[in-house]
Amino acid sequence: MNPSNHNTGWRTEKSSNSLNEVFSSVNIPKDGSFKKKLLAYMGPGLLVAVGYMDPGNWATDIAGGAQFGYTLLSVILISNLFAILLQHLSVKLGVVAERDLAQACKDHFHPAVNFVLWIFCEIAIAACDLAEVIGSAIALNLLFGIPLSVGVVITIVDVFLILFLQAKGFRYIESIVGGLIFIIFIAFFYEIFLSKPDIFPLLEGLIPKKEIITNPSMLYIAIGILGATVMPHNLYLHSSIVQTRNYPRTTEGKKEALKFASIDSSLSLMLAFVINAAILIIAAATFHTSGNKDVADINDAYMLLTPLLGTTLASIFFGIALLASGQNSTLTGTLAGQIVMEGFLNIRLKPWVRRLITRTIAIIPALVISIIYGEKGTAELLVFSQVILSMQLSFAVVPLVMFTNSKAKMGEFANKMWLKILAFVISAIIIVLNLYLLKETFFPQ
């Protein structure tokens, strides 16, 4: 057992993780400046932020902006603040306990409970992969006219992309992800420039309003935004990849690692907030103000951008951003899948086998729906994938909060009382809102 964990409440020795064994070569300068150390720690936060701007977020952001203008900007901001806190707890678990969330669950819970948690997590990862498949297929259809069913099949090619990148090392993956995020950011910056949003109503939208709760339609989309923003598999992913940094596994070393890794996470998630907010702002400025309030999916948004903004470049940039978003999320979904399977079951599969299984599970429903129902069916399937993610979220958040609250497991790094209360409140809000979302989805009045 790791000497630094000899007095903790963990029952068993930490099992190894193949990702951390392969990607443990990112060294931290011992006597470097604040800037050099921060740059060394930067990277995992970007990979996590990708999950907060995947194609599944687009539908809820577009619908929210088109129907209610800038009002739901406050929901995106609050969701992002929730995410920053939860990802900080994920970082803390990984740095202090040197376990990812899946390993921590395996160590603490009964095998039967772990099996259920694993099943739920695999379903969530498959649902996330489903959103990426549909998003990429829609982007290929919009940009190149490729039929949706063919686009769905083409997405299986990313299996080979994953293998190539994993062979290059973790810094290479982080660089590719950072580059794709930059493309998404530039695309939406251009779209906002064209749409010319009203600044004062936009700023006012950042302040929560009572009607978000009292208006059932607005509340439903608000919960959808929350469910699409806070991704359960990111909590597993972050607690693992933060360990790829070669920091000293001492108390002081962990304190420093926790500080810099949390800065990396918070800055990256604020970038995700800007991109998500940009999608809603564009929808509000372009569709809501022009009376096109019934725009609720990616296809409608793409088709209307050119006539409303007066240039075909608007739609092209939109499609490119969507394609980049889908491919980015594919990378992190694959890594999360490996972490979850190894952490819960200690089963190691070759990366291409793991990737092929996950992608096949996602491709089958996407292919069937695209062939039978076309664009409308895939749009509805995209929204449904976010409902599935919402169902799993509580099963990841509750163990994470429980572990990081524990003095026995975390020692002096256990959450302070104010953080315990805040984490409990956020967990309760997430659970209640997601229960409401499930009720409205499956038992509408």
Automatic annotation (TrEMBL):
State the protein's name: Divalent metal cation transporter MntH
Described purpose of this protein according to its UniProt entry: H(+)-stimulated, divalent metal cation uptake system.
What Gene Ontology biological process does one annotation of this record name? Answer: iron ion transmembrane transport
Carries keyword Amino-acid biosynthesis?
Answer: no
Instruction: Provide the transmembrane region boundaries.
Output: 38-55, 67-86, 115-138, 144-165, 172-193, 218-237, 267-289, 301-324, 356-375, 381-405, 417-438
- List GO terms (cellular component aspect): plasma membrane
| Signal sequence range | none
- Taxonomic lineage from the root: Bacteria, Pseudomonadati, Bacteroidota, Flavobacteriia, Flavobacteriales
Q: Name one GO molecular function term.
A: symporter activity
**Source superkingdom:** Bacteria
The subcellular localization recorded is:
Cell membrane; Membrane
